[in-house]
Structures are given as structure tokens and as C-alpha cells.
Amino acid sequence: MRTALLLTSLLLPSALAAQSSTTFYAGLGATWSSKLVEDVIVSDVITTQPAIAPTIMVGGATEVFPRYDVDIELQFTTGSYSADTKGNGSTKLGTLRTFSATLGLDGPLFKPPFRWRASVGVLKYLPTEDTGMFLQGGPLEFLMGLGAQYRRPVSSAIDLSVTLRYDFHRFTTDELQRQGFSQTQQVHRVGLTVGIAMGGRR
Amino acid sequence: MSARSNILLALSAAVAAGGCGDISNPSRSNFYDWRLVVGIDSLTFHWPEDHTVRVWVQDTLSMPANTQAGIDTWKRQFLYQEFDAVLVPDSATADVLVGVTIPPAAARAIRLGSMAPECTGDTTFPPLVGSTIVLPFHIRVVPRTLDPEGPATQACLRLTVTHELGHAMGLFKHSPNPNDLMAPDPVSGPTARDRNTVQQLYHFEADLTASR
Which CATH superfamily, name and number, covers B32-211? Predict the structure, then answer.
């Protein structure tokens, strides 16, 4: 399974890039997330929030209209998350990973090296341990986002790519609901990745 | 459609979706009193959040497995890892001793008990020294049937040791509700009331500390 995924990830970009209208891009960076939950117990105000998380992102885009592309983007983040009690320190709760898959539309922004992107997709929370609010596992949430990308040629085939992403989803878990939490938390994430882009529009 | 209108459309959708309220925490108003009454004082004790409670268990009648299940049950009641405990092999360094032949902690120990048809249990600790509990807590769980390895007795041992661990965590009073784990004769649990109570306890300022 892992070998098949590795081969796919290595061969897919080349295959996509071989078509002139198709772009492949990949990057490494970091993602910041707003709080997942704010809770009050007795007089303690407890905020649970992921730390800034290392991020890997891959995507492929193909032209559908002149100047506009449709793309698929996969993003994986991994980092710690903690519960901060106002005025009373912080508790590391473990490692929290997320995987998102989004379908996007992108087009020109200001001048040619810059492009905007709007997207929808899904985000899966993958805690390494099923404890606390993730006692019954991590949720799958609907996601939408906006972004911008800057590309600059560094060789005849490869561009440097700097990608800024913002996305939004609503968060809760089965365990939070079981414990009586109502409604959902709006979660905002901002990610910055630096990587390469091949093929397509330059 | 222009690039600018696309961006505005997506931004509007994001703002519209984000306009709803945030998550609301439960009130946790349904709980019972946990405090230890000494004279005219009602005292609160809980383990410090950065302390992993060391539990030694007598290796008989599946008590290590039953005790581990009890620890896991209590840990699952928390959202923010306020409580943690591990089984340790050395009774000399343990904070809590668990067994079927554990004697009371002292001749005039403070005793919190439970009783079911298949087994009984109690948790004892010596009289307070000022505002300090002198460790370890002694938990004794005793089968009352001729078949202590039988499923009914084992279920009782597991439930009772979980109840007694609740006392050693600072739930020093019994719940008046018979369905709660911390009822004097527990039959099941923990309930939402048990969870609310232990969550409140671990965010309440402690009057008592524990040391050896």
C-alpha cells in the first residue's frame, strides 16, 4: 500500500506535467489554527488550540477556461495541541494531525505571477491518541477556503511556488457532544508553504 | 466572471458560514458534594495536575486488571488530562495501595466504604496532619462470595475498586443518587453526574495536599 502511494506520488506529477495545461505543485510549510474549544469549569477558562503545525501540501491543477484552473489539493499537518488555562499554565494534550482534500478554482490575481484560489473540501482530524475530546475519534468536517499563490521560474521546467492558504470549518467531536457541548466552534486556519510547481501556465 | 467577483463570492460564503455562534460548554450544574468534613471545615483535595498517581496493586483475583480498568474509567471522564495514574511494582513508593488484604491506613484512619452483595470495599488514610494527607491511601476490596473468580464477583470487584479510586482521587463523599458510581452501594456508572463532579473537583482550589 505504501509502495503504491509512493509510486503514485512520484509518477503522478510527471504525468500531469507532461500535459501542457496541467500544473503540479508541492510544498512544505506551517499552518496556524484558531482555538478548537473554549470551556469554563468552575472559574477556569480553558482554551484548546493546536500549535503551529508543520505542513506538507501537494496539488494538481488543469485549465478549464482561459486563465482559470480547476485543482485538487491535499494537505497534511502534524503538531501538538494543548489546553491553556487562563493564568494557570498549559497542558500538552498530545499530537494532532489533520488531512484535508479540497477541490478548488483558481485564477489570475493582480499580475501574472500571482493567482487566487477558492476551494471546498473535507478535513479529517487524526489524533494520535483517542483521549479527552477525541475519546471517540477525530471528526470529519466540511471545509472551505481562499488562497493565493506566487510562482517564479527557477529553471526551464521548475518554478518556485509560495502558497498562502486560509480555510474555515466548524468543529466539534462526538465526545464533546456526549459531554453536553452544544453547537460547533468556528475554526480558522492560515497556512504558508514554499515549494515547487511544474508544468502548465508559467 | 471576473477574478474579483470570484474572490468576493468565496469571501461572502466564508463570512456567512462563520456568522453562527461558537461552541457552548455544558453547565455541569448537576453534581454532588465531594468535600471531606473535619470538624466544622469542608475540605477539598485533588491530585496536582502535573502529578502521575502511582498505584500499587496486590496481584490476586485479577486485581491489577480490575484496577487498571478503574484508572482508565476515571481518566476517560476528563477532557484536559487533569488526572493521570499508573500501576507501579513497588509498594514503598506508591501513592495508593490496592488489595484484598490491605490493612487500614491507621488505627484511627478516616474510612470511606462501599458495600455490594458480592464484595465490599473501603478507602482509608490516617488522620490529617494540619492540611496534609499522609500517603499512601489504602484501598481494600474484599469478595463476599465463595467464587471470587466468578463473573459476578469480578464485576463487583471492578466496580468497587473504581468507586474506591474515586475516593482516593478526592471524592470524599458519597453521592445521594443510587445510580452514580460514587453512591454508597454502586451498581453502575460513572454517570454524567459523576463526570460533572470530578471535573468540577479538579478545577476547584484544593485545601489539602498529600505527602509521604
Answer: Collagenase (Catalytic Domain) (3.40.390.10)
CA closest to B78 among chain A residues: A132
Could you tell me if B51 lies within 8 Å of chain A, comparing CB atoms? no
Q: Is A34 on the interface with B (CB under 8 A)?
A: no
A-B contacts (CB, under 8 Å): 102
Q: Does A83 touch chain B (CB under 8 A)?
A: yes
The CA distance from B198 to B83, in Å, is: 10
Model confidence, pTM: 0.86
Pairing between strand A37-41 and A44-50? antiparallel
Q: What is the pLDDT of residue A1?
A: 47
- C-alpha–C-alpha distance, residues A85 and A62, integer Å: 47
Q: What tens-digit pLDDT sequence spans chain A (202 residues)?
A: 455 544 445 444 544 444 558 889 999 999 999 999 999 999 999 999 999 999 999 999 999 988 899 999 999 999 999 999 988 889 999 999 999 999 999 999 877 789 999 999 999 999 999 999 999 999 999 999 999 999 999 998 899 999 999 999 999 999 999 999 999 999 999 999 999 999 876 5
Q: Tell which residue, A86, A92, A42, has the closest CA to residue B81.
A: A92
Check B200 against A42: CB less than 8 A apart.
yes
Find out whether B179 and B32 touch, Cβ atoms under 8 Å: no
Q: Which residues have a Cβ under 8 Å from the Cβ of B53 and sit 6 or more positions away?
A: B47, B83, B84, B85, B86, B95, B96, B168, B169
Residues of B in contact with A135 (CB under 8 A): 76
Chain A residues inside the 8 Å CB shell of B25: 37-41, 180-181
Taking an 8 Å cut-off on Cβ atoms, the answer to whether B49 and A91 are in contact is yes
- pLDDT value at position B12? 54
What's the pLDDT tens digit per position in B93-125? 999 999 998 888 777 777 787 777 789 999 999
The verdict on B147 touching A (C-beta cutoff 8 Å) is no
Domains and CATH numbers, chain A: 25-198 (2.40.160.20)
| Tens-digit pLDDT profile for residues B177-210 | 999 999 999 999 899 999 999 999 999 999 999 9
* Contact check, Cβ <8 Å, B203/A41: yes
Chain A residue numbers touching B49 (CB-CB < 8 A): 91
Tell me if chain A has a CB within 8 Å of the CB of B23. yes
Around Cβ B153, how many Cβ atoms within 10 Å?
21
What ranges do the domains of chain B cover? 32-211
